[in-house]
Amino acid sequence: MFFEVLALLEDRKAPVVINWYVHHKDVDMIDEGESFQEDFPLLDFNVIVQQQELTFG
User: Fold this and answer.
1) 13 CB-near residues (< 8 Å, 6+ apart)
2) Which residues does the UniProt record annotate as the domain SiaC family regulatory phosphoprotein (predicted)?
3) Please, is 45 exposed, middle or buried when counting C-beta atoms within 10 Å of its C-beta (0-12, 13-18, 19+)?
């Protein structure tokens, strides 16, 4: 589903910024974000590797 949304945004040249926050130990999610960057070069897709635990709230 996420892939299809990104494809739609890229096709329509939508002015979006995607910040993909990942923990530095989560290699799978880092790889996934980098794959999205490669698959959608027209989108402003940033993989932001965090050294600390992410907290929300």
Assistant:
1) 42
2) 2-49
3) buried
